[in-house]
Amino acid sequence: MPPEGWTVTCDSSQAGNACSNAIDGDKDTFWLTDSTASLPQSIVIDMKTTRIVGSITIQPRQDGAADGNIGQHQVFLSLVPKPEQPRRHQLG
Q1: What is the rounded distance in angstroms from the CA atom of residue 14 to the CA atom of residue 55?
Q2: What does the H/E/C string look like for 28-91?
Q3: Band of the pLDDT at 83, cuts 50, 70, 90?
Q4: pLDDT averaged over the chain?
Q5: Which of 8, 11, 67, 77 has the greatest number of beta carbons closer than 10 A?
Q6: How far apart are CA 48 and CA 59, in angstroms?
Q7: How far apart (Å, rounded) are the C-alpha atoms in residues 3 and 46?
Q8: 45: how many CB neighbours lie within 10 A of its CB?
Q9: Closest residue by Cα to residue 8 from 52, 54, 65, 25
Q10: pLDDT exceeds cutoff 60 at 86
Q11: Helix (H, G, I), strand (E, B) or coil at 22
Q12: Phi-psi region for residue 48, left (φ > 0), alpha (ψ -120 to 50) or beta?
């Protein structure tokens, strides 16, 4: 599904590797967290409307560099738009 109108926020990013890169559809761009930021890091994608999500694809960096690889991840879906009041459903 195309990410038109979606918004993305994240805990941190490095210059040139904004969190919006995570959903821009370009295999040559990526979100990279600030290397000095503490873990865990998170990214929130607001689809702006209720959608059925059957799967999520996470593509690793395509430039061969090792930094930025995901060590662990969790995926949560929510009908509540405010993170301070989550009603989450974990996939997997």
Answers
A1: 27
A2: CCCCCCCCCCCCCCCEEEECCCCCCCCCCCCCCCCCCCCCCCCCCCCCEEECCCCCCCCCEEEC
A3: low
A4: 83
A5: 8
A6: 23
A7: 9
A8: 16
A9: 25
A10: no
A11: helix
A12: left
Whole-number pLDDT of residue 12:
93
Residue 20, CA distances (Å) to 24, 45, 49, 70, 81 in order: 6, 9, 18, 17, 18
Q: What percent of the chain has pLDDT over 70?
A: 86
CB-based contact 32:67 (threshold 8 Å): yes
Contacts for 13 with CB less than 8 Å, ≥ 6 apart: 19, 31, 32, 33, 34
